[in-house]
Specification:
The chain is of the alpha+beta class. It is 57% helix and 8% strand. The chain folds into three domains: 142 residues, Beta-Lactamase; 112 residues; 103 residues, Orthogonal Bundle (Arc Repressor Mutant, subunit A), CATH 1.10.10.60. It has a five-stranded antiparallel beta sheet with strand order 2-1-5-4-3. Strand 4 and strand 5 form a beta hairpin. The longest helix has 23 residues. It starts with 7 loop residues before the first helix and ends with a helix.
């Protein structure tokens, strides 16, 4: 396996000092060493460790939903995991999302955010160069960045795909595509549920000779069309394509056909729900939409009406007057309404404490969160969670 005698721990520590990226050494799936320029409470790689350690190839990388990337180098029972790397720092909401996933409360958030922000932004290509170097020492391979594109699928899915679509299949695929886009454009969650029960098979024209690659290409086309459909329904362009990019990255990480099928439904549901949430607004005017999107993108902050007004370049009193006139709702009450709707979603996950949810939603204390939640729902978060179980 080795081309020369070397100290792997020393190599990884020096790579961390040089790059600023955390590096871990695993033997037989057990953590042996972890190197970082800054200490941290909880390792963000823990969110993906099972997927990372189960990679089959010697060298690969994994992209997260926030566009962070992890590098994996394997040699026999040894696995090296590098990251998270990122080309630009996480913004405040992305940091809060990551902390929430890791069950980090406000008490420890400062230390955690300092660690994440200390990681020097690095292009993915630069991290891949590091991986190629470590892999050469471990396995003797001489790889380049261009060699680390998406690898072939498992043998059961590797057979060439020579199924040409006939005119009947093409027509069927076109009709299914129209159904999906109509559901998304209308934000019709009930129609989506009915469509999912029938689970039609979508067969498009041949996009690749490899079946897995073909499905991924079809997924990418569907994601792009769905993004355009929600934009037509009023969703902001950057929000629509941000969601599209997220699901395309998830799709590229899929290794099995079933994973892509499940992800397709998840993506269509997300787009449909986005339009459905917009339609719940009592007006389609620009002010209401801009307020809605501001709250979503700052959901973890203690939002004030003056914050929204400043972001929209309008006076606080004028914004409050316009919003109340358009919606019939007090702006401050609307902020709490959106946050409590988000809280209802989060309470369905029993692994997240009520305190953690309160922190994530930017409330000053659990008691404040409980009081607002009860005002709007007539029951406490605890009672609501018990009802949902």
């Amino acid at each position: 396996m080795k081309t020369l005698t070397f100290d792997l721990a020393y190599l990884c520590r020096k790579m961390t000092d040089m790059s600023g990226l955390p590096i871990r050494i695993y033997e037989n799936s057990q953590l042996i060493n972890r190197f970082s320029v800054v200490d941290f409470l909880i390792d963000p790689a823990d969110l993906y460790i099972e997927v990372l350690l189960n990679r089959e190839t010697n060298v690969s990388y994994f992209l997260t939903e926030r566009y962070e990337y992890y590098g994996i180098i394997k040699s026999d029972a040894t696995a090296i995991i590098i990251g998270p790397g990122r080309e630009a720092p996480l913004d405040n909401q992305q940091l809060r999302d990551l902390a929430f996933q890791l069950n980090i409360t406000n008490r420890d958030y400062g230390v955690f955010s300092d660690f994440i922000l200390s990681i020097v932004p690095m292009p993915l290509e630069s991290m891949i160069q590091m991986m190629c170097t470590i892999n050469h020492i471990l396995n003797g391979d001489k790889l380049n960045v261009s060699d680390l594109h998406l690898k072939e699928s498992p043998a059961s899915e590797r057979a060439d795909y020579y199924q040409e679509s006939g005119s009947a299949d093409a027509y069927k695929g076109y009709n299914i595509e129209r159904q999906i886009l109509k559901i998304v454009r209308n934000g019709d969650l009930e129609a989506l549920e009915e469509w999912a029960r029938q689970a039609p098979t979508l067969r498009s024209g041949k996009l690749s000779d490899n079946l897995l690659r073909h499905r991924k290409n079809t997924f990418i086309v569907t994601a792009t069309l769905a993004a355009r459909a929600v934009i037509e329904s009023g969703v902001k362009v950057d929000e629509a394509f941000k969601l599209s990019d997220l699901y395309i990255q998830k799709c590229e990480n899929c290794r099995h056909l079933d994973d892509i099928n499940y992800l397709l439904y998840e993506m269509i549901f997300s787009y449909t729900k986005e339009v459905n949430n917009l339609k719940k607004l009592t007006t389609q005017d620009r002010i209401s939409k801009d307020v809605y999107y501001y709250i979503l993108s700052h959901i973890s902050e203690p939002i004030k009406t003056s914050d929204i007004a400043q972001a929209m370049y309008i006076s606080r009193s004028h914004l409050s007057t316009l919003f109340k006139k358009e919606t019939g709702i007090n702006l401050n009450d609307y902020i709490h309404k959106i946050k409590i709707e988000k809280a209802k979603e989060l309470l369905s996950d029993s692994s997240k404490s009520i305190t953690l949810i309160s922190d994530y939603l930017g409330y000053s204390s659990s008691s404040h969160f409980n009081r607002i939640f009860k005002q709007l729902t007539k029951e406490t978060p605890k009672k609501y969670r018990e009802k949902c179980q």
